[in-house]
Specification:
Blueprint lengths: L2 E3 L2 E4 L33 E4 L10 H16 L4 E3 L7 H10 L4 E5 L4 H10 L4 E5 L16 E6 L2 H14 L4 E6 L4 H21 L4 E3 L1 E2 L4 E2 L9 H11 L5 E5 L3 H12 L4 E6 L2 H4 L7 E7 L1 H13 L8 E3 L6 E3 L11 H16 L11
Helix pairs in contact: 1-9, 2-3, 4-5, 4-10, 6-7
Length: 366
């Protein structure tokens, strides 16, 4: 099932085509063949991480990779600041302002309030907000004209992962848990549960989802984004309920889930999020059924290059299956255990979501 894209091997279902990533509200950007020349010579791009850190093998790392690629293309050296807690956000942003950054990327939903305050106070700096619209008054528009949101309707790809998981589950139970009950986490969990429900409707089955209640819009959460013993214990509790597929949502907490899976001695499939975790963390590769992808790296790269070349565009980008901003990774080591007819159904389902024949609910759905 492996199909590669122009910018790398990002998906067995070819649902994440990096060349078209920023097709959201405008035409997809062209590949740039130059480094920006003099236009970017004094340009300083910067980034603030969420508390997961730049080595989380997930969304912070993807953001950093996108920044580094853009900086290399522009011929400049970026500045990256890592947050240890939410209390670091405002001071980290101010430190970048004080260092005369021209563009600042904030990685993560929780950074949005601090990003808005900083952007409002510094209208001449371009801000790129990953995972939030920065719409605090909920009027449908970003609250500052110098902020570009890069967000992802990951419920669509998670729907496919839920359908796939229900199809490979022999126990009739699949599980999920998250770091915190915030929209950018719960969107994965809810989309996953919708996909399981759809599988049950189509196939007359009764696969259960442990760890997320769609009616209550609540479930199992660690309370943070650290791979620690608390996350392992939460994963263990879900595993003890008999699941044979597990979706942890929250940066490095998948590492705690992997420990719990290995400790169980059972064959339990792990699902990664944001990056293709098989590629970013081979140590858990044998456990991975697939990963739910967000093109954060490509989105950040394109936005920073535009800013560096004097073409900053604050128009929001919303990644979907249709514009290839979200998708599923290859099945890798699990490929032989996914029936061909199930894989075909997942591909067909993706087409139905793109066309609107199958609707996936989320806070980003139009």
């Amino acid at each position: 099932m492996r199909i590669t894209t122009k910018k790398g091997a990002l998906g067995g279902l070819a649902l994440l085509g990096a060349a078209a990533l920023l097709a959201g509200c405008a035409a997809a950007p062209e590949e740039s063949g130059d480094g920006g020349g003099e236009a970017a010579s004094d340009f300083l791009p910067c980034m603030v991480s969420d508390s997961g850190g730049f080595d989380d093998k997930s969304f912070n790392q993807l953001g950093a990779e996108g920044l580094d690629k853009a900086a290399a293309e522009l011929g400049v050296t970026p500045i990256k600041v890592e947050s240890q807690a939410e209390t670091d956000f405002a001071s980290n942003l101010q430190s970048l302002v004080d260092q005369n950054c021209n563009a600042i990327v904030t990685v993560g939903f929780l950074l949005a309030p601090a990003a808005l305050e900083s952007a409002t106070a510094n209208p001449d700096i371009d801000y790129i907000s990953v995972d939030d619209m920065v719409d605090t008054d909920f009027d449908g528009t970003t609250d500052a004209p110098n902020i570009k949101p890069i967000i992802f309707d990951t419920a669509q790809a998670a729907f496919l992962a839920g359908y796939l998981s229900a199809g490979v589950s022999e126990a009739g139970k699949v599980g999920t848990f998250g770091g915190m009950n915030i929209p950018t986490v719960s969107i994965f969990m809810d989309g996953f549960a919708q996909g399981v429900d759809f599988y049950n409707q189509e196939n007359g089955t009764a696969v259960q989802v442990i760890g997320w209640d769609r009616a209550a819009q609540d479930g199992s959460f660690t309370g943070g984004f650290e791979a620690n013993d608390g996350a392992r214990q939460l994963a263990q509790g879900i595993i003890d309920q008999g699941v044979d597929v597990l979706l942890p949502v929250g940066g490095p907490i998948y590492q705690s889930a992997a420990v719990a899976i290995r400790d169980s001695g059972r064959q339990i499939a792990l699902i990664g999020v944001d990056a293709d975790v098989f590629e970013t963390d081979p140590s858990v590769g044998d456990l991975l059924l697939t990963s739910i992808l967000k093109g954060i790296d490509v989105g950040v790269h394109e936005a920073v290059v535009e800013a560096g070349n004097g073409n900053f565009d604050p128009t929001p980008f919303i990644g979907t299956l249709e514009n290839e901003g979200v998708g599923l990774a290859d099945f890798h080591d699990w490929a032989d255990r996914v029936p061909a007819d199930l894989a075909d159904k997942v591909t067909a389902l993706a087409d139905k979501i793109k066309s609107g024949e199958v609707e996936v609910e989320s806070y980003l759905a139009g």
